[in-house]
C-alpha cells in the first residue's frame, strides 16, 4: 500500500500546475491532502475520478479559502470520519480519517503559530489531539497519521536550527510535544529509513529558498509502532512543485 501526504497550498492552484497529471504518475493507493482551500463544489472531482481516484473525501474549513483536508483513494474505505468531535479543531477542517481492512489513514493539518494568539491555539490543539489519539489507538491500533504537523522534530530537520530556535515550528516546546507524540507509539517513517540531513518538505517562497534547499521538514507519515514490521519504504518527493510543500511517501506491506 503506497500512501502519500501532500500539503497542496490550494488544490485549485496545484491543479493548474499539473497536480492531476503528477498524481497519475505517482500512482499512490491513497493520498492525504492538506490546505485544500476549497469546497468539493469548487474542485474538478470528475477529473480526479478519471485519474483513478473515484473515492474522494473533502473536509473544508468553515472559512472560505482556508485550511481544509482531503483523502483520495483508489479503493473504497470501510468507514470515513470527518473531524475529531472537538469543536475548536473541526470548524477549521483539520482532520479526516479513512478506515481500511488492515489500517486506518488520517490526513492531519496541524495549525501554525504565526502569532501569539495562534500559537496558544496551536498548543491547545496539540494537547487535545494527543488525548484524542491516545483514545483512538485503543480502538484502531494500526494507525497512519499523515500530514503537515507544522513542526520540525530535530535540528537535522531544518536548514538553520540556530537562527530559527525562536520561530514557531521549531520552538523547544513544540519540538518536545512532537517528540512525546512520537514516543507515545509512532514511528517517523522517513527517519526510519533515512538518517541523512538536508531533506526537507517545505520551503519559503522568499529568497530562492527552495533552489538553495533552505527548507524545513514539517510533513510526516507517522506509523503506529505495531506496524513497524510492515514498513517497506519512505521517501520525500522534492521534484513535485505544485506547492511550497512537497509530497512525502510511505509504503506499507
UniProtKB/TrEMBL annotation:
**Residues annotated as catalytic:** 109, 148, 245
In this protein, which residues make up the domain named Endonuclease/exonuclease/phosphatase? Answer: 4-245
The record ties this protein, via Pfam families, to:
Exo_endo_phos
**Per the database entry, which stretches of residues form a coiled coil?**
none
Q: Where is this site: Important for catalytic activity?
A: 219
GO BP, one annotated term:
base-excision repair
Q: Which InterPro entries match?
A: AP_endonuc_1, AP_endonuclease_F1_BS, AP_endonuclease_F1_CS, Endo/exonu/phosph_ase_sf, Endo/exonuclease/phosphatase
Residues the record annotates as the site (Transition state stabilizer) are: 150
Alphabetically, the GO molecular function entries are:
DNA binding; DNA-(apurinic or apyrimidinic site) endonuclease activity; double-stranded DNA 3'-5' DNA exonuclease activity; metal ion binding; phosphoric diester hydrolase activity
Q: Could you identify this protein by its name?
A: Exodeoxyribonuclease III
Its taxonomic placement starts with: Bacteria, Pseudomonadati, Bacteroidota, Flavobacteriia, Flavobacteriales
Amino acid at each position: 500500500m503506497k500512501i502519500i501526504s501532500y500539503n497542496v497550498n490550494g488544490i485549485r492552484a496545484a491543479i493548474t500546475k499539473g497536480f492531476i497529471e503528477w498524481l497519475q504518475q505517482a500512482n499512490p493507493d491513497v493520498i492525504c491532502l492538506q490546505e485544500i482551500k476549497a469546497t468539493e463544489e469548487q474542485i474538478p472531482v470528475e477529473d480526479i475520478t478519471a485519474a483513478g481516484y473515484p473515492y474522494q473525501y473533502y473536509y473544508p474549513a468553515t472559512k472560505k479559502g482556508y485550511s481544509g483536508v482531503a483523502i483520495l483513494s483508489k479503493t473504497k474505505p470501510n468507514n470515513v470520519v470527518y473531524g475529531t468531535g472537538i469543536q475548536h479543531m473541526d470548524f477549521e477542517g483539520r482532520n479526516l480519517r479513512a478506515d481500511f481492512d488492515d489500517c486506518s489513514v488520517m490526513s492531519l493539518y496541524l495549525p501554525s503559530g504565526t502569532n501569539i494568539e495562534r500559537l496558544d491555539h496551536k498548543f491547545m490543539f496539540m494537547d487535545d489531539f494527543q488525548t484524542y489519539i491516545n483514545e483512538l489507538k485503543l480502538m484502531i491500533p494500526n494507525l497512519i497519521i499523515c500530514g503537515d504537523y507544522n513542526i520540525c522534530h530535530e535540528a537535522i530537520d531544518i536548514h538553520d536550527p540556530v537562527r530559527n530556535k525562536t520561530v514557531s515550528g521549531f520552538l523547544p516546546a513544540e519540538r518536545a510535544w512532537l517528540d512525546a507524540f512520537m514516543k507515545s507509539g509512532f514511528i517517523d517513517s522517513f527517519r526510519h529509513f533515512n538518517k541523512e540531513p538536508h531533506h526537507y518538505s517545505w520551503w519559503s517562497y522568499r529568497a530562492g529558498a527552495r533552489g538553495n534547499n533552505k527548507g524545513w521538514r514539517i510533513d510526516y507519515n507517522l506509523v503506529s509502532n505495531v506496524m513497524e514490521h510492515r514498513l517497506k519504504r519512505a521517501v520525500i518527493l522534492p521534484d513535485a512543485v505544485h506547492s511550497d510543500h512537497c509530497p512525502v511517501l510511505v509504503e506499507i506491506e
